Design the sequence.
């Protein structure tokens, strides 16, 4: 998504400027071309050499002493930009942009660019909550600027409150979302499920499975980055919320069933990557079960068949984790649950499936076409699945 994209990273005079170095590093590692512009105040906090070393590219600090490598005039960075990201954005730059002031290279670039602009404000809570800053931010949002953060937490002043620089992963997620706005899933509404449900035995114990949720979260992020409006219905996981995705938390299979049923009107695709329990304890005991000498027998009952029972005019994708007869079992599930696609993974392959960062999957469609993929990072598997979803949607 970021490969060869030209990102202008504006760094301003906030104490959070050092965090922009991590952002520049992560963007560069994803093969973006990062052109950094620093304000005069920003270089009081971090040296331009840091950004130069991280990005491998010249850093612009002065309007009239432009880096010779760029051989630029004051608007050429603006014209080449795929996206402009100001992170951190001070109250001062926000005020200047809202007023249309162009007294430094960063302001000139923002005024001159046709690229989308993302702001990641970072400042003291009182500065942020000040009605002047809020008015300026509203004005910029109304003009199409995208704002990520700030978040709440400990501030450099020692106070706690709203004003902290957003997480670098959320800023990158926002950049990907903005760059993907006109992707092949633009305007599509997609529901993704993820994680392993938890079926209570008593107040402290439950039956679950080894699903990490990584595949479902990767699908939600990839669909977002292709322009879709995504709802992620997730069982408990250790993963953080993907930015720009509506997240609904559930615990049990029954809760997931209700959440799916309640969110599928007018969707284009339902992708069920969650590992939903097939059985739950017939009775969840209200008090913690005491340890006794004899063994304990639990009676289990079937849970709702979400995939088989939800119907509608949308592309339906199921996942099947198999340890034997992969193709045969997957084809049977595809038929029985009336799916458009099934993504089957062989959990006996090392490095694939539950908990892993990669997956080796076979995708089968309704016509019986088979696509056996090699072991790939879950992000790449997500894009392969979405390629097929996009194709099916383009035909409908
Ligand atoms: C130690 C220190 C920390 C600062 N941190 C912030 C900050 O986090 N956010 C902010 O809006 N301003 C902060 N300021 C004030 C800005 O540096 C000041 O408004 C400056 O004019 C911003 O210039 P610029 O927007 O052109 O970079 C800080 C100032 C100092 C001295």
Sequence:
């Amino acid at each position: 998504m970021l490969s060869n994209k030209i990102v202008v990273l504006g760094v301003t005079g906030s104490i959070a400027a050092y965090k922009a170095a991590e952002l520049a590093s992560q963007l560069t590692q994803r093969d973006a071309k990062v052109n950094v512009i620093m304000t005069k105040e920003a270089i009081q906090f971090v040296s331009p050499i840091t950004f130069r070393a991280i990005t491998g590219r010249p850093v612009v600090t002065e309007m009239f002493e432009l880096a010779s490598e760029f051989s630029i005039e004051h608007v050429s960075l603006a014209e080449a930009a795929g996206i402009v990201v100001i992170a951190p954005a001070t109250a001062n730059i926000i005020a200047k942009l809202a007023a249309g002031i162009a007294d430094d290279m960063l302001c000139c670039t923002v005024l001159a660019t046709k690229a989308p602009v993302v702001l990641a404000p970072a400042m003291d809570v009182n500065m942020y909550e000040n009605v002047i800053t809020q008015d300026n931010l509203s004005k910029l949002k109304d003009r199409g600027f995208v704002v990520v953060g700030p978040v709440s937490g400990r501030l450099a002043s020692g106070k706690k409150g709203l004003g902290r620089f957003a997480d670098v992963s959320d800023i990158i997620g926002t950049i990907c979302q903005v760059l993907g706005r006109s992707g092949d899933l633009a305007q599509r509404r997609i529901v993704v499920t993820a994680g392993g449900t938890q079926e209570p035995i008593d107040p402290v114990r439950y039956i679950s499975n080894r699903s990490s949720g990584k595949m479902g979260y990767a699908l939600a992020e990839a669909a977002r980055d292709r322009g879709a409006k995504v709802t992620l219905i997730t069982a408990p996981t250790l993963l953080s919320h993907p930015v720009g995705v509506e997240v609904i938390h559930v615990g049990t299979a029954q809760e997931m069933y209700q959440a799916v049923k309640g969110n599928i009107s007018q969707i284009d695709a339902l992708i069920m990557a969650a590992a939903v329990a097939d059985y739950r304890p017939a009775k969840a005991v209200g008090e913690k079960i005491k340890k006794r000498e004899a063994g304990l027998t639990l009676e289990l009952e079937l849970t709702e068949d979400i995939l088989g029972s939800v119907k509608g005019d949308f592309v339906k994708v199921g996942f099947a984790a198999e340890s034997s007869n992969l193709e045969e079992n997957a084809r049977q599930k595809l038929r029985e649950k009336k799916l458009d696609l099934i993504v089957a993974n062989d959990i006996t392959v090392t490095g694939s499936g539950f908990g892993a960062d990669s997956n080796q999957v076979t995708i089968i469609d309704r016509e019986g076409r088979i696509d056996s993929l090699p072991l790939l990072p879950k992000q790449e598997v997500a894009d392969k699945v979405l390629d097929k979803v996009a194709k099916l949607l383009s035909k409908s």
